[in-house]
Amino acid sequence: MNLSIVKANTTYTTAIAYICTAGWKQTVEGKLSEEYQTKNVDFWYNHEKVYNDIQDGLYSHVALVDSQVAGVIGGAMTSPNVGEIFVLYVDATYRYKGIGRRLLAAFTEQQIGSGATEQWVSVQEGNQRGIPFYEARDFVYQKEKNTITDTGEKQVSLRYSRKLD
Predict the structure, then answer these.
(1) Above 90 in pLDDT, residue 10?
(2) Strands across the sheet containing 154-163
(3) In the predicted model, is pLDDT for residue 165 greater than 90?
């Protein structure tokens, strides 16, 4: 497997939208309605929004396996010393091969370079891929965040953080 982590650019728009759509839908499967899933995907992962978010730096790195996009990470600085991970998804074909770990390392290095001493992430309640992944990388559960979706459903996110050196 020829793996490289590179900066995201707009040539990867379609692949990023696909990976984020599939990954997010897996995390909420059985928890949120198809109606809400469709609305959320149509808003966050449509081609134009992903393209613009790449240009704005919100998607920062992609993992390439033999020139195919296998994963993506993105986020932003939410205050002068605090970074946030907004998305980290790996295509199901390539999971459990160290790609998420490598994406997180590249993104964390970028955020430390921007002054981050703390990093946060939200994980869907019950996400048994995401929760163990982050906990194994020193993220500590902080609180539960409940949101009512525009379809009237309760979405539960677990907030985790870690200190950065």
Answers:
(1) yes
(2) 3-7, 59-65, 68-79, 82-90, 118-124, 154-163, 140-148
(3) no
